[in-house]
C-alpha cells in the first residue's frame, strides 16, 4: 500500500513539473490575445470619438478626425508592443 502511494506521489510530481500537460497555457494565451486586441481597438475608438467630438462641437474638418483616429491606432499598436514585451520579460524569468 505504501509503495503504491509513493508511486502515485511521484507521478503527481512529474505531472506538476511538466508544463505541457496543463491546459492553462492555452487559456492564458487566449486572455493575452483578447487583452491586446481590446487595447488596440479601444485606442482607435477613443481617437475616433475625440475627433468626432471636435468635428461636431468645434466645427473642425474631417481631416482632424482622420488624424486623431490614426494617432489612436498608433497609440494602440504601441500599447500592444509594450504589453508583448512585458509578457516576454515575464516568461523569461
Biggest β-sheet strands, sense, barrel: none
Number of helices: 3
- Could you tell me the radius of gyration in angstroms? 24 Å
Task: List the uncertain runs.
Answer: none
**What sort of overall outline do the alpha carbons produce when their principal axes are compared?**
rod-shaped
What's the helical proportion of residues? Answer: over 70%
| Structural class category | mainly alpha
Strand content: under 5%
Helix and strand succession? HHH
Q: Termini distance? A: 40 Å
| Average pLDDT reading | 83
By DSSP, the count of extended strands is 0
List its salient traits.
3 helices, 93 residues, rod-shaped, mainly alpha
Notes on the structure:
With about 90 residues, the protein is mainly α. The chain has a domain at about 40-90. It has helices spanning about 1-15, 25-55, 60-90. Helix 2 packs antiparallel against helix 3. The longest helix has about 35 residues, at about 25-55. The mean pLDDT is about 85.
Amino acid at each position: 500500500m505504501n509503495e503504491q502511494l509513493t508511486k502515485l506521489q511521484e507521478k503527481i510530481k512529474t505531472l506538476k513539473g511538466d508544463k505541457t500537460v496543463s491546459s492553462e497555457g492555452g487559456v492564458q494565451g487566449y486572455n493575452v490575445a483578447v487583452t491586446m486586441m481590446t487595447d488596440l481597438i479601444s485606442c482607435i475608438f477613443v481617437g475616433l470619438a475625440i475627433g468626432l467630438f471636435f468635428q461636431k462641437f468645434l466645427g473642425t474638418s474631417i481631416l482632424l478626425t482622420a488624424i486623431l483616429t490614426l494617432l489612436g491606432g498608433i497609440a494602440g499598436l504601441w500599447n500592444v508592443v509594450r504589453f508583448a514585451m512585458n509578457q516576454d520579460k515575464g516568461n523569461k524569468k
